[in-house]
Amino acid sequence: MVKRKIIKIDESLCDGCALCIPSCPEGALQIIDGKAKLVKESFCDGLGACLGDCPRGALIIVDAVTEQYDEPGVIAHIKTNAPEKLHTHIEHMNQHKNEISGHSHQPHFGGCPSSHTMQFEEPSQMEQTAPASSRLLQWPIQLHLVSQTAPYFQNANIFLVADCVPFAYANFHSDILAGNAIAIGCPKLDDVHEYVEKVTQIFKHSMPKSIKVAIMEVPCCSGLIQIARQAAINADLNLPIEVIVIGIRGNLLSKRTILD
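Above: the chain's sequence. Below: its structure in token form.
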């Protein structure tokens, strides 16, 4: 046991919104019985990446005598439960290794790296022999605007898509849009509670054939997975959820299936 900084959760303030979950690069937080909780104290690095995403101020950093931070254990945990977050975790640790190794200063963190400014080189021009055709089968597509009883959701393959995915993934129309009913949204900027309720009603009315989620690799994006999982539970659906993760350079990072 060592004295170090670690997250503390005030359960009297926590309303279980889950906004802190995707902002933790270590995957150390989960919603259990309607409250955010640490999976293991040794998985929390004490850097506070999740602080800025709690709308109720339920998360604080405290000095406490607790288990030593376990980086190998965190890596194994991420590989098993959220492999798409491994790159983000490693980047996070490289940026803040001095704090982890014992430096006493306490920087303030903004949370999700989705807001980091980056610029990429434009790829070389590729010859296109014919205009591409849209594979869009419906309108509207934004989760706020779609009707929960829309006919295109009925017995469909429903794909929840993070807002940034269509811009990053060049094969979006052929690999994600084609043959699916979609709803797009941002779990970072939009109301998670409203989305959970909306998707729950969509699932209840449509009885989908399958549920899929497409997200970017940044931690905040994984909130869309939590929305899909909670909505499926609320709707009493016993369906696997397929998750596709797209890198910020537009590459397909991973595919996995979640069985609840």
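The chain has two domains: 2-112, 151-258.
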